[in-house]
Amino acid sequence: MTTQAADTTARATVLVDAPQERAFTVFTDGIDTWWPREHTIGEAELKEMVLEPRAGGRAYGIGVDGSESDWGRVLEFDRPNRIVVSWDITLGWKHELDHAKASEFEVRFIPETADRTRVELEHRHLERHGDGWEAMRDAVGSPNGWRGGLEMFARAAAT
Amino acid sequence: MTALGDPTRRAIFEHLAAGPLSVGALADGMPVSRPAVSQHLKVLKDAGLVIDRQAGNRRIYSLDPDGVAELRAYFERFWTHALGAFKQAAEERNGHEEVS
Question: Taking Cα atoms as reference points, which of B68, B82, B46, B2 lies closest to residue A4?
């Protein structure tokens, strides 16, 4: 058979001028310093993002009203090399309570030199969001729907 | 109910995430009859989640590559944006520590 499996993994890489340990620490303990503020599944505006630095830890946002909104579970925590975190977020940016429908992302911190780290991210099992995929298709064409989301990301990425 | 709200359809969908399969191959791997698998596949196809094509005397099903590509693009844009902000934070902090 000539056809291949559909690629259900998203990938992104960035080179950081920082040592491996520091890159790892900023990504995990320091998630609040870089997480895109508009990406919260809480009702309230995001005050702080937290990623508990241990396997079994929670990833959650704290709203300005003090409410906490979980969005991930730390599945693996191997300082300073890699982490795996579940993505318990539906495509509509709501908390996904069914773990079978959650995807996950792995981040690897690979030292290139003493002061430079390659950070490779793989967000896999995207097919598990299949339900949202369907809803997304229904939303195509509406300003706040799927296309709108893509445009928002494109604008954010360009600024 | 959404097309994937049914556990059997969800299982079929996840089998197809690993690679394209014929109706017969799907039915062999599941405690469901072949006609039932065909019925579920029709629902998935109507929902735009899977596509099919004829290969000889068999019909081969796979995830809709356009849908998967959109999903991947969504996450790649999100992470490219987020990792850009992460890079800035990591490099700023680096600078601050050298100063102190």
Answer: B68
